[in-house]
Amino acid sequence: MGTSVQNSIPRRDPALVMRLSRLGSMHQCRLSFMRVLTRRLANENWSFARPVFDVDAKGVGHAVYTATGPARTYSLVAFAHDLPPEERSDRVIATAWDATFTLFDGVPTADDIERLSHNIPYQEAGRVNEKSLSVSRANRSVRLWKHMVDALAKGEQPDVDKVASVGYLMRTTAVYGSGKLGAADHETLADRPEFDAPFQAEMLSVFLTRAFVRDMINHMARARGGAQAAELALDIAHGLGIGNSTGLGMAPFLINHPVLLNNWVAAREEAIARVRSLNTAQEAEANLFRSLFARVQVLVETWRSEHPVQIKKLVALKADLEKVEAYLGGDDLTANSPWDRLLNWTSAALSEEGQELIASLILEPYGELVDDLSPAMSDHRPDASRILGTMSVKATRNLMRAGYAQALETDWSAKENCARAWYVSEEKLEPRLGERFEEPIAEYEQPLSPGRDVALAFADLKIWDDDAPVSEFLLNHPEHRHSIRRVQINACAPYSEIQDNTICADMMPIDMLRYKLATFGATHFDPRSDRWLRICMFGNAPYPEELTPENADLWVYPDAEGNS
Amino acid sequence: MSYALNEVEALAKRAVRGAGMSWGTAEEAAKATRWLCRNGIDGAGVLSALLDHNQGKAEQDLRPIETSRIWRAVDDAQLCSLQAGAALSDGALKLKDASITMQRLSFPALLLPFMASAAAQLNCVLVLECDAGSASTDGNLLGLSNDALLQATSADVVIRIGDLTGNILSQVSRAKPAPEAWDTLNTYAHKTYAPATEASRLAGAGAGLSDND
Question: How far apart are CA A149 and CA A136, in angstroms?
Answer without folding.
Answer: 24
